[in-house]
Amino acid sequence: MSEWFRVGDDGCITLELHIQPGAKTTGCAGLHGDALKIRLAAPPVDGRANLALLRFLADALKLPPATVVLKSGHASRRKVIEVRGAPPDAVAALAQPS
Q1: Which CATH class is domain 5-85?
Q2: 20 to 30 Å CA-CA from 33: which of 17, 49, 76, 96?
Q3: Which whole-number Å values give the CA distances from 79 to 7, 56, 92, 98, in the listed order?
Q4: What is the phi/psi pair of residue 39, to 5°?
């Protein structure tokens, strides 16, 4: 299993992410230490980058937005996200180059 995500006993998946807000485009940029790096086109102002991150992950995993929750790191580049209802292989595929 990868270091940047883990599956809990309840099936909930916890993601460790490193976020780069204000990028040219939004997308996964590979691993950054023990976290998955995600570039966001949204600026880190008034929670816009956090909202863009949650929307991006929900879209990428084909899940309703309510199933992707920011657990910690609201004002940090390092974020912990909780995902419910996604298969682990779909989450692992986020780190694969397109």
Answers
A1: alpha beta
A2: 49
A3: 17, 14, 17, 23
A4: -95, 135
Model confidence at 98, pLDDT cuts 50, 70, 90, reads: low
> Contact 16/35 with Cβ under 8 angstroms?
yes
pLDDT in the model for residue 96: 83
| 75 torsion bin: left (phi>0), alpha (psi -120 to 50), beta (else) | alpha
What is the model's pTM? 0.93
CA geometry: angle 48, 36, 82, nearest 5 deg:
65
pLDDT at 1: 46
User: In Å, how far are 28, 39, 49, 50, 68 from 20, measured between CA atoms?
Assistant: 10, 5, 9, 11, 19
Question: For 7-66, what is each residue's pLDDT tens digit?
Answer: 999 989 999 999 999 999 999 999 999 999 999 999 999 999 999 999 999 999 999 999
Q: Residue type for 26, please? A: T
Task: Tell me the pairing of strands 35-39 and 13-20.
Answer: parallel
